[in-house]
Design a protein that fits this description.
The protein contains five helices and four strands, in the order αβββααααβ. The protein is α+β, with helices and mostly antiparallel strands. Strands 1, 2, 3 and 4 form a four-stranded antiparallel β-sheet that branches. The longest helix has 33 residues.
């Protein structure tokens, strides 16, 4: 009888431990998903092709963008100044040249798209460790969609100031 009670206690303790591990793993998984911007609806994660310098050309948007960020949890208004350029795959020289011309002709539309993406960021968003990568991926996806092409392979963000 004593052996049966002892076995029953051991089984109950093991079941409680397993239940605790399952609950802990579930909380951990949900917290990781909650903090992962790629899991948010509407967030597009874009893979970037790495090209050798002779296989890539750039399209630089003229002047830096200077615009307001969304008001974040600090309740303050913040302004961002940022420069953006696009990397274009020029393995097919003719298509790359045509795309560069179309992008030059569409500079105002590209600027508008970039501003729309940037203005949807908060100060807190821009201070995350991966902020530039996420912003570049969003701008890349928006621009690839506008021109319906995958010849635009990356976005460079530089000269960034937030105040």
């Amino acid at each position: 009888m004593e052996k049966n009670k002892l076995m029953m206690i051991i089984i109950i303790v093991l079941l409680v431990l397993l239940l605790g591990l399952f609950v802990g793993f579930s909380f951990y998984t949900f917290s990781v998903l909650k903090n992962n911007p790629a899991s948010e609806p509407g967030h597009i994660t874009q893979s970037v092709i790495t090209l050798a310098p002779d296989q890539r050309t750039s399209y630089k948007i003229g002047d830096p963008f200077k615009t307001n960020l969304l008001t974040g949890s600090d309740g303050k208004s913040h302004v961002i100044s940022v420069s953006v350029s696009f990397g274009i795959n020029k393995i097919d020289e003719k298509k790359a040249t045509e795309l560069l011309q179309v992008m030059t002709d569409s500079d105002a539309s590209i600027r508008s798209d970039c501003l729309r993406v940037i203005r949807n960021q908060t100060y807190e968003d821009m201070n995350r460790a991966d902020a530039m990568d996420l912003l570049a991926a969003d701008i890349l996806a928006t621009t690839q969609e506008r021109f319906n092409t995958n010849l635009i392979v990356d976005v460079d963000i530089y000269d960034i100031y937030i105040y």
